Every structure is written in structure tokens, then in C-alpha cells.
Amino acid sequence: MFVLGIESTAHTFGIGIVDTEGKVLADVKSVYSPDEGGIHPREAAEHHQEACLLILKKAINQAGISLRQLCAVAFSQGPGLPPALRIGAIMARGLAYSLEIPLLGVNHCVAHVEQARYFSKAEHPLVVYLSGGNTQLTTLEGKRYRIFGETLDIALGNMLDMFGRAAKLAHPGGPKIEKLARQADGTYLPLPYTVKGMDLSFSGLLTASKRLLKEGAALSTVCYSLQETAFAMVTEVVERALAHTQRAEILLTGGVAANKRLREMLRIVAKGQSARFASVPPKFAGDNGAMIAYTGLLLYRDKIETPIPASKVLPKWRLDQVDIPWQ
Ligand code: AMP
Ligand code: MG
């Protein structure tokens, strides 16, 4: 018996398959990358529509199973871009209906967290979730994730991608900025550092970094200064949240978790507070179908199904609105 999961919230159309222990048997994806500008929701949906059948075929082949062996189909029900979400939802409904198996609506943010917990074996961590669309510090309190701090404007990954575009780096900017920052000579140019209580704001930092570029500063120096400033902001709130919650583990997840400098900084904070630093494996840091399949398995075990009439996509579905009965 296997659970298939479909991810289609934004740029990635992915399908993952897990067995009933949670082991990943397949993880296949196709990523939409805009020629210029940010993600266009309709173009992302068109990409997903074109990619979906081939990705399904590849995932089934990679797992070496047949569709008839599936016991449930999970899909990212939200949050995300409505046209993109709908492609995954339509495919999931079609599979669940025709195979006569349960449909499971998964919250994308919960999936990033649960997959990171699965791989890191973190029990009750302070979760640091940094991606293209989300910047959140959260811990499970009772049956729900409680958000301690988040961005007041744009997500950290989105900020990096927007700066990347201004610097004419190909999308996504995050990995390219990391590489350029590593090549920099260590000159730090002061930039706006905006922490408000436990919340963060990145738009001033983005504007000032773009201005530095326009004024002729070396790209690698700006990348370095940008990264150091943004990650120091994250590190400050993580340190405070850790001291406040007394959690013994930091768990980093989301696309930005692939960044080595960020991991290094959070590892230092963890050490200072005698906590363990854990992170999602870089391979699974970005959006992927396997995280939806795994979280689908958790829902399936608890018999939390999503009947087709209740399977409308939820573009604004927040992490802290989801009941978590399995922890
Ligand atoms: P997600 O939305 O979870 O798929 O994450 C995508 C985001 O992660 C994008 O904003 C990327 O720029 C960002 N990202 C991916 N790799 C890195 C990296 N090495 N350093 C910083 N950001 C990254
Ligand atoms: Mg994501």
C-alpha cells in the first residue's frame, strides 16, 4: 500500500510516493521558471497542466508500483496560487475518484514541517520555516502550530529572488546569491536591519540592496551584505524564541534551508543555547511531492479524509489553522 502526493502550490509541480512507513519511493518534479519577472500564476498553472501526466508516469515508474496499489491520494490544498493549486487538486480528485480511494487535502506548510521532522527525527523543535512564500517561526502547542514570529511584508526567499532579478540573476536568486556571497572579499556594507518584536521585515533591506547595486557596489559585496543582514535578523528572533520556548531543538525547513551560511549561523545559535540544530535534507528543502505524500500518510493513519465536495483549494490556508492530531 502506498500514498501518492501532489504538490502544485507555486513554481513546482511534483509527485511523491511513500510507503506506509513513510519511506520515499519516488519524488519527481518539474519546476516552472519565468523568462522574466516573478511567478505568473496563470503561466505556472499552464506549466503544471503540461507537466502533470508525465510527472505522474515518471513517479509511478520510479516507485515501481501500479496505480492500483495506492491506498490514498494527497494534494497540496493550500496556501498557494489559486490557478496552480487547482491543477494538482483536479488531478488528485480524478485519481481518488477513479481508484475509489481516499482523497487527502494537505496544508503545504505543515508538509514542509512534517517532512523535516521525519528526516531529522526532531521531536518538539522550534521550527524555522523559510521559503519563497513563507517566513515563520513556530512550535507545536497542544494540537496546533503556534506562530511566534513571521514576516510583516515579503518572505525571505521571495526577497532573495526579487534582489536576484534586479541583479539579472536567473530565477531562483537564492542559490546564486549564496554562491556570489561566498566569493566576496568580506567587505560589509551597512543595510537596514528590521526586527519588530518577533517579526521581520525585508522590503527595506531589498530596496537598499538594489540601491547599492545601482550606485555601483560590487555584486558579490552586496550579496554578502544582504545575506549577512537578512540571516542575522532571522538568527536574532530564533535565539529569542529558543530562550523563550526552552525547546531543545531548532528545525530548519523550506527552500532557504539549503543555504549553508544560514545553517552555519543557526548552528551557532543552537550551540549557545545547548540545543540541537537539525535541518531538512537539502534535496527536500524546496517544494516536493514527497512531503505531501508523507503528510497525506499521517492524515490517512488518522482517517482525516477530504471528501471531494470539501476539496476546494484554500489559497490562504495558514499553518496555525490546521489540527495536528498525530504528534
Ligand atoms: P520553496 O518555496 O520552499 O520551494 O523554496 C524556494 C525558495 O528557496 C526560493 O526563494 C529560492 O531562492 C530559495 N532558495 C533555494 N536555495 C537557496 C539557497 N541555497 N540559498 C538561499 N535561498 C535558497
Ligand atoms: Mg514551499
Helix content: 40-55%
**Termini separation (Å)?**
23 Å
Strand count, sense and barrel status of the largest sheet are: 5 strands, mixed
As a percent range, the share of strand residues is 15-25%
Structural class: alpha/beta
CATH homologous superfamily (4th level) name of the largest domain: ATPase, nucleotide binding domain
Kindly provide the name of the CATH class of the largest domain: Alpha Beta
What overall geometry do the principal axes of the alpha carbons give? globular
Number of helices: 9
CATH fold name of the largest domain, please? Nucleotidyltransferase, domain 5
Description:
The protein is α/β, with parallel strands linked by helices. The protein folds into 2 domains: 2-112 and 285-321, Nucleotidyltransferase, domain 5; 123-283, 2-Layer Sandwich (Nucleotidyltransferase, domain 5), CATH 3.30.420. Helices cover 43% and strands 21% of the residues. It contains 9 helices and 12 strands. It has helices at residues 41-63, 82-99, 108-120, 156-166, 173-183, 203-214, 219-245, 260-272, 289-301; strands spanning 2-7, 12-19, 24-31, 70-78, 103-107, 126-130, 135-141, 144-150, 195-196, 199-200, 249-253, 276-279. Strands 3-2-1-4-5 form a 5-stranded mixed β-sheet, with helices on both faces. Strands 8-7-6-11-12 form a 5-stranded mixed β-sheet, sandwiched between helices. Helix 5 (173-183) crosses helix 7 and helix 6 (203-214) packs antiparallel against helix 7 (219-245). It is globular, with a radius of gyration of 20 Å. It binds adenosine monophosphate (AMP) and magnesium ion (MG). Adenosine monophosphate (AMP) is lined by residues 131-133, 157-158, 160-161, 172-175, 178, 254-256, 258-259, 286-287.
